[in-house]
Amino acid sequence: MKRALACLLTSAILGAAGASLAADATPMAEDPAVEARLVVISEELRCLVCQNESLAASRAELAEDLRREVRKLIRDGKSDPEIRDYLVARYGDFVLYRPPVKPTTWLLWFGPFVLLVSALVGLIAYLRRRSAGLTPSALTAADKAAAEALLADPGADNPPKHNA
C-alpha cells in the first residue's frame, strides 16, 4: 500500500514538473491559408541557428522572427519564389535546404564525392605498396641450417621450467 502511494505521489510530482516545462503552442495565423503557405515554404528553409532543422521545426527565436517575416511577405501578396529569393538575397544560399547547383555551391554538392573518390584512390595505392613490400625473401644457406637445427631439437631454446 505504501509502495503504491509512493508511486502515485512520484508520478504526480513528475507530471507537474513536465507540465511546467512544456512550451506554449505556437499561435496559428489568423488566416489558415497564410499558415498553410508558411508551412510549405518554411519546410524548404533551414534554421540559421539550428542548421540541421527546418525553419518550420525550429524553436529558436530567430526562426520565429523569420516565420513572422514570411507571414508578412505572404500577406503582402508575394509569391513563394519571391519569398525564397528575398531570404536568399538576405541570408545567402545556406538558408535553402536544397541550394542550387552553381559555381559557389559546387563544393557543397560535389565535395563529399571528391573526398570519397580520393579516399578510395589513397586506399588502393596504400594496399598496392603494402602488398609489394610483402614479397618473401629467399633464405640463405645459414638461415636454412639454423631453422633446421631449431626444428630438429625443439627443446634446445626452451629450458625446462622449475617449480618453486
Q: Please, could you describe this protein's structure?
A:
The chain has 164 residues and is mostly helical. 60% of the residues lie in helices and 0% in strands. The chain contains 6 helices and no strands. The longest helix is centred in the C-terminal third of the chain and has 27 residues, at 106-132. The radius of gyration is 35 Å and the shape is elongated. The model is unreliable at 19-27 (pLDDT under 50).
Give the number of DSSP strands.
0
Any idea what the radius of gyration is?
35 Å
Order of helices and strands: HHHHHH
Low-confidence spans: 19-27
What share of the residues lie within helices?
55-70%
What is the helix tally? Answer: 6
What is the residue-averaged pLDDT? Answer: 80
Task: Report the span from N to C terminus.
Answer: 64 Å
Major sheet characteristics: none
Helices and strands in order, then pairings?
Blueprint: H1 2-21, H2 32-43, H3 61-75, H4 80-91, H5 106-132, H6 141-152
Helix pairs in contact: 2-3
Can you give keywords for this protein?
164 residues
Summarize the structure.
This protein is mainly alpha-helical.
